[in-house]
Amino acid sequence: MLAKTLYGLEEVLAKELRTLGAQEVKPVVRGVSFKGDMGFLYKANLWLRTAVRILVPLTGFKVRSQDDLYNKMKAIAWEEHFDVGKTILIDTTVKESFFRNSLFVAQLAKDAIADRFRERIGKRPSVSTREPDIRINLYIQKEKVWVSLDSSGDSLHKRGYRNAVDRAPISEVLAAGIIQLTDWDKHSPFIDPMCGSGTFPIEAALLAYNVPPCVFRKNFCFKHWKNFDKALFELIFDKALEKEKSFHYPIMGFDKLPSVLRKAEQNVSNALMEEQISLKQADFFKSDRPEAAGRRGTLLFNPPYGIKIEANIPELYKRIGDALKQHWAGYTAYVFTSSAEGIKHIGLRPGRKIRLYNGKLESYLLRYDLYEGTKKKK
């Protein structure tokens, strides 16, 4: 199988897969290949925090023409995988191929599948671009075609808890990956002082309490496959709910805007984390560290960077650095930003810098060790 992810999260996802019990785990660019049975496929869709989707390869072949692709797609026994009454969607990626248009390839493949069903069953499956029952993935590079069934359906970042969003919200998958790239040990407080719609605190709570991130999702495409084992999935789902752990440290989110905080409150409620996450209206630049935060912990936030809000970036990021030094000594702070200009004005030397992407924006996760007093030289 192949679990797709975001650039920079390949090793995080590989670690997740190994912990979950996958075999032959191998990171590739924006993905991790692995082996497992159908039960593991169900478990992976529920548990993987940094996977975008999980593909199950069906076949691979070479093509040298449009007719070649049509005939080889038509030769696949699609009726063995799903019923004609299911709606389908074909996702296509084309690289370095004589095929120039991925939409044309998707149409050609759809026609081949539909014609096979019509010739054998007398009916054609319908196409749906919104919540299709079956998603088929085609990856074409030069003359080679890989055909896979998408077991997930909608991207796995769509957990099911986030209905209210702030401007330019961070993806749940990216948030979960960033949290795992920090050195937060899950035995200390976790605080997001600019929490927006609450994604960082919610993903941190799901991780700390060992709750499956996709436990709130209603649908996965594998539920529409002919070989779907409902009893096995329900068993795995029930077992997942039994694995919740205790966590005895505060997880907090602050935002200065009441309207934004209300969105976070709604999402926290949807995630059933109202008792586990503390939300408070507070201005990061005008607030002291809360007493409950203690002397040590992890601070993680995604400050404005131009798209999220119009701001004087140099001045804003200078104030961020000043606030970190004045109020958060003893903490480890992580700043995730797409503003290269802003980074220059924080006024602190990062102990670590990790390159990631937020959508198409090149971004960085920066670690700042906020020492109490003067840093002693060894």
Features:
single chain, 378 residues, alpha/beta, VC0802-like, Rossmann fold, 7-stranded mixed sheet, 10 helices, 14 strands
Overview of the structural elements:
- This protein has about 375 residues and is of the alpha/beta class.
- The chain folds into two domains: about 150 residues, VC0802-like, CATH 3.30.2130.30; about 190 residues, 3-Layer(aba) Sandwich (Rossmann fold), CATH 3.40.50.
- It is about 30% helix and about 25% strand.
- The strands form two sheets. It has a seven-stranded mixed beta sheet with strand order 2-3-1-4-7-6-5. Strands 10-9-8-11-12-14-13 form a seven-stranded mixed beta sheet.
- Helix 8 links the parallel strand 9 and strand 10.
- Helix 2 crosses helix 7 and helix 5 packs across helix 6.
- The radius of gyration is 23 Å and the shape is elongated.
Biggest sheet: strand arrangement: 2-3-1-4-7-6-5
Helix share, percent? 25-40%
In CATH, the topology of the largest domain is named Rossmann fold
* Biggest sheet features: 7 strands, mixed
The chain-level mean pLDDT equals: 94
Instruction: Note the beta-strand portion.
Output: 15-25%
How many domains make up the 3D coordinates? 2
What is the overall shape?
Answer: elongated
Give the assembly state of these chains. single chain
Q: What integer value in Å does the Rg equal?
A: 23 Å
Number of helices: 10
Report the end-to-end length measured between terminal Cα atoms.
Answer: 48 Å
